[in-house]
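Hi there, hope your week has been kind to you so far. No rush at all, and the record is pasted right below.
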Amino acid sequence: MNTHELVNIRKRIMFVKADDVYFIAYNLLISLYELKATSTSRPFRDYRKLSFLIDFVADPRLTAILQDSKRFGIPPNSEDRHELSVAYSRGASRMPHSMRVICALESRGILSIERGNQSEGFDLWLHVEKLPGGFLADELYEVERSNISTLRAMWPQLRIVRLDTMLQNFFGVNGVEAWHA
């Protein structure tokens, strides 16, 4: 087994993907950092997108499905569509947990929340200086950093697009009905 496989096994033992606040928190923090949402002038628009983004950040297989679909212009097969459908459902059900984590991180000064002027949800940005030294560079999160970088390369405007646009790009064009907008 290679190092990445061992790290992924370790993470599966440490975190429950559905509603584990630590799983949600570290994925939110890494996503905000990698999307460069680190100041008032560069916020992450509409926190609700993060609930859906988490599965793609955490799972290279899901990111690869999106990447292949976009690169080749071929809709995913039924098994991949099912995986995307499950990711969509988890994202929708994770929204209340994500908001609680965001509020907890804001109360600790790790991020800031502001009512979005261009979006329906809240915008947020990370205060990198408030994080423990080396947290964002930890080898444990290499897969997540790689996945979010891949997603950012495919959709450079991911930080600022509307929720419905992100849902269409991730799910709708891949045959998964996204009713939550």
Observations:
- DSSP finds seven helices and two strands in the chain.
- The longest strand covers residues 111-115.
